[in-house]
Design brief:
This protein is 43% helix and 22% strand. It has 14 helices and eleven strands. Helix 5 crosses helix 8. The protein is globular and about 55 Å long. The structure holds ligand ISJ. Pathway: Quinol/quinone metabolism; menaquinone biosynthesis.
Length: 293
């Protein structure tokens, strides 16, 4: 069925551990409304949501800014950090003075962080490097470049290798220069999907909110899962998840607005970006979800 009314709503889930505190306890099969879920790298979800292939997804915050007129934000959900994030990393083969006007390989999985890197290089450091897209593989990226940007679990795994490269944490650089939070991902719904199917969106929003609350109450299940799937120590993952913040309050919004302003000034986004929340939730029609058994 393709009329858009009767088909299941399509949800996108980022295939990195940084979203687990929101999605780990979320089961699309348990929703009242039929739903399908795809799990992909952020850049793929950005494209699928833009093209209407999916209806609601965690996407790069940059991608929200780029298409903000077509999307609503799901309130109080994000992937944010104040300072170090540990998984948005620039690996330097050459000294920083050379990198700022040298060649930087950019992971094809990201949108927020590649543009954050451009803001840092061009606005903060006054450089003008050449950028080239590359699959997220540190050694291959650095064969032909002075530095390489990795995000998510690719960055985490690379940070554990004994490669000797200097590493810049872009969350930390952003915070040092601006004093602000940085928001890397948000949850967005296509406006037409939200209008067509508000009950399903409410159902998903409730499910994600409950899931986040459960994860914040007890991080251990996701710490254990990350350890068994990716490796590393319990302490590493406890620190990693504690360092991230998955709400989206005034402080995170202020940081993201500044990021959009800089992106606009550099011509990376061609309009001013408004943060527009899904109006059903804003209107207060949304009942505080209860934890389901
Ligand atoms: C914190 C992170 O945020 C991610 C960074 C993204 C980007 O750069 O576009 C997109 C989604 C987030 O999951 C990370 O990858 O470590």
């Amino acid at each position: 069925m393709t009329d858009g009314l009767s088909r299941p709503i399509r949800i996108g889930r980022i295939d990195y551990t940084n979203v687990w505190p929101v999605v780990h306890h979320f089961d699309p099969a348990a929703l009242k409304h039929p739903a399908e879920q795809v799990q992909e790298m952020p850049a793929v979800l950005n494209r699928k949501l833009r093209e209407g292939e999916i209806d609601l997804a965690a996407i790069s915050s940059f991608a929200y800014g780029d298409s903000s007129e077509s999307y609503y934000l799901l309130p109080d959900l994000s992937v944010s950090a104040l300072g170090r994030v540990q998984s948005i990393l620039l690996f330097l083969k050459s000294p920083l003075e050379k990198v700022v006007n040298g060649k930087i390989a950019l992971t094809t999985t990201s949108a927020t962080s590649v543009n954050l890197l451009k803001i840092i290089m061009e606005k903060f450091y006054g450089g003008k490097p050449i950028y080239e897209d590359a699959e997220p593989s540190l050694e291959k990226m650095l064969q032909g470049a002075d530095a390489a940007l990795l995000i998510g679990d690719h960055a985490i795994r690379a940070s554990w290798q004994n490669h000797g490269y200097r590493v810049l944490d872009l969350g930390e650089v952003w915070n040092l220069w601006t004093g602000h939070w940085m928001t890397f991902a948000v949850w967005a719904v296509r406006r037409e999907a939200a209008r067509r199917n508000p009950e399903a969106v409410r159902d998903i929003f409730e499910g994600l909110t409950v899931s986040k609350r459960m994860a914040y109450r007890d991080l251990e299940p996701i710490v254990s899962k990350a350890q068994s799937q990716i490796g590393g120590t319990r302490e590493y993952w406890q620190g990693y998840f504690r360092n991230l913040y998955h709400g989206f309050g005034p402080e995170q919004q202020a940081g993201l607005k500044l990021y959009y302003q800089y992106a606009h000034e550099l011509g990376l986004i061609d309009h001013e970006v408004n943060l527009t929340e899904w109006p059903v939730a804003v209107a207060g029609n949304f009942a505080e979800p209860q934890v389901r058994k």
